[in-house]
Amino acid sequence: MDLLIKPEKFRIVEKQEHNEYNYSKYELFPLEKGYAITIGNALRRVLLSSIPSLAITGLRIPGKLHEYDTVEGIKEDIIEITLNLKKVQLKADDIDKLSAIDYPILLTLKKKYKAGQEIKSGDIRTPAGIEVSNPDHVIAHLNKDMEVDFELYAQTGKGFIPGQELKFQSDIEYIYIDGIFSPVLKVNYLTENIRVGRRTDYDKLILEIWTKKNITPTEALREATKVLMEHFDFISKLWEREGNLETIEQMEVSIEEDIEEEEEAEENIFGLPRDLVETQIDILDLTKRAKNCLKRERIETIGELLKRKPNDLLKIKNFGSKSLEEIKKELKDKFDIDYEKLYQEERGNTFDEA
Q1: Which residues, other chains included, contact 42 with Cβ-Cβ below 8 Å and sequence gap of 6+?
Q2: Between 263 and 309, where is the model more confident?
Q3: Across residues 238-264, what is the average pLDDT?
Q4: For the chain, percent of residues with pLDDT exceeding 90
Q5: Residue 159: what pLDDT?
Q6: Is residue 4 part of a domain?
Q7: Residues 59 and 173 in one domain
Q8: pLDDT of 41-55, one tens digit each?
């Protein structure tokens, strides 16, 4: 008889499909006493936090510079529109392929409406391989005949990412939307006693999963199991490869040393002191226009500024050659940094004069 009992049955005991969500209920048994909580809690945490998905993270409306504005002919203001866009559920045929793209995917919402009609998520035009899973979801209401022309941007991610943390450089009309990526709405697990032979104190795990329409509970559970297995598999292969504890402990030290060296190299950009690199750009006496352009591009420190080539800065909307000259002068006067010369010497790049 095995000292540790292993699970022998896994089954779906209930499955439901609703307009806004999917639901499934699973059972896994028999398990050693306490294992139902261990496995259930691990799966629940991964399901709620680590399943990748596609979500709308940006909006552009011609002539609108921020979300505290209204669109003539639409009942809802832009804040209400963005809140409704967060609930649009996008399904990707190959999420891993989309994850390799480092820029938002363009979706369009362009259609002529009559007064009293609703703008629905099914009106969004998506590229091949992407579809809207809840086409009846209402985004806004029209109170006059008009043509709507919105540009929407979608990105892949996991969990929740606030709009201010989404790294995408765009123009002043780009409105950031918080990324609600998790396709899993709710997870619940229960434990019950189950009989094995003469013993009645073994565990049965009951797992309930609610998901959005862009994924089934079974697909989400498979992905969560895969994530956990990859982590355990790494440790398992480590034991098999190294074989003894002393070798692994030595490896741990060498990995930590490598990480410290990489962090130090990243921090010492151009060999400059760390405190200088982390200095806020507010210390530079720039015009309000130049500072706003930099902050809109998420350039907050001297280090982040120096990572941009002069030509890259000139591509920023409303940032011209005068603003660039201001930066060169301030860097030279305050820190004795020759901006273009520094880049040429350290990275071997040359820049065309604008």
Answers
A1: 228
A2: 309
A3: 58
A4: 53
A5: 92
A6: no
A7: yes
A8: 999 999 999 999 999
What's the Cα-to-Cα distance from 225 to each of 215, 299, 319, 343, rounded to whole Å? 15, 39, 48, 47
The verdict on residue 258 lying in a domain is no
In contact, 204 and 195? CB cutoff 8 Å: no
Give me the residue label for tokens 């994530």.
227
Our CA dihedral for 87, 91, 94, 99, rounded to 10 degrees, sits at -10
The mean predicted confidence, pLDDT, of the chain is 85
Q: Can you give the CATH number for the domain in which 308 is found?
A: 1.10.150.20
Overall domain count for the chain: 3
What is the 8-class DSSP label of residue 77?
Answer: B
Cα dist. 200→8, 59, 189 in Å?
Answer: 16, 57, 20
Any idea what the CATH number is for the domain that residue 165 is in?
2.170.120.12
Query: Has residue 253 been placed in a domain?
Result: no
Name residue 15's beta-bridge partners: 24
| Mean pLDDT of all residues in 137-147 | 95
Neighbouring residues of 239: CB distance < 8 A, sequence distance ≥ 6: 248
Q: 263 vs 151, 165, 259, 267, 268, CA distance in Å?
A: 38, 21, 6, 6, 9
**Per DSSP, what are the bridge partners of residue 180?**
160
In a domain, 3, yes or no: no
pTM for this model (two decimals): 0.69
Residue 171 has pLDDT above 80, yes or no: no
User: How many whole angstroms separate alpha carbon 18 and alpha carbon 285?
Assistant: 58
Nearest Cα to 107, choosing from 160, 51, 60, 68? 60
At 343 the pLDDT is: 62
> Could you report the per-residue pLDDT of 312-350, keeping only the tens digit for each?
888 787 788 888 888 888 888 888 888 777 666 444 443
Q: Residue 14 forms beta bridges with which residues?
A: 25
User: What is the DSSP code string of 61-72?
Assistant: -TT--SSS-B-T
d(CA 121, CA 138): 6
Give pLDDT, residue 96: 85
